[in-house]
Amino acid sequence: MNILFITANGIEDLPFGGAKVSRRNYMALKNLGKVRVYTLKKRSNLCSLISILEGYFPPILKKDHKELRNIIKNKYDLIFYDGSIFGKLINVTKNSRNIVFYHNCEQDFISVRFGNRNSLKKKIYQILIRKNESYLTKHA
């Protein structure tokens, strides 16, 4: 079985919870077949701003859609989304079997990240997460 593992955490053995769970999921999928990892890494603040203007939660950009289209030309039996923030990336993989692993309810988790302060960045991130998480949930 060919599996595409899409993540923002990566699969390195890092000490924090999200990375540990991502690594565990990756190792479990390796027992099912050949796994290719596509990592959406943190980019510059400018790229984050572009991502927000395009309606995606950072670090996703429209160019990731193009890269994924090229990658999935190779037939994948399963696309595994390692998180719920990927939103409309699922449009690229809609003709495949898709699984989404929810690390958190990210819209609520953003409050943990930003705390009680009500900043513009927090509000924008909450809107983007709600939009992207809802879209991914609906179409996975």
Describe the structure.
This protein is an alpha/beta fold and 140 residues long. It contains 5 helices and 4 strands; from the N terminus they run βαβααββαα. Strands 2-1-3-4 form a 4-stranded parallel beta sheet, with helices on one face. Helix 4 (106-114) packs antiparallel against helix 5. The chain starts with a strand and ends with a helix. 27% of the residues are buried. The mean pLDDT is 84.
Spatial strand order of the main sheet: 2-1-3-4
Helical fraction? 40-55%
Low-confidence stretches: none
Q: How much of the sequence is in beta strands?
A: 5-15%
Average residue-wise pLDDT:
84
Please report the total strand number as a whole number.
Answer: 4
Structural classification: alpha/beta
- Major sheet: 4 strands, parallel
By DSSP (H or I, 4+ residues per run), the number of helices equals: 5
Which H/E pattern describes the elements?
EHEHHEEHH
C-alpha termini separation? 19 Å
Radius of gyration: 15 Å
> What coarse outline follows from CA principal-axis ratios?
globular
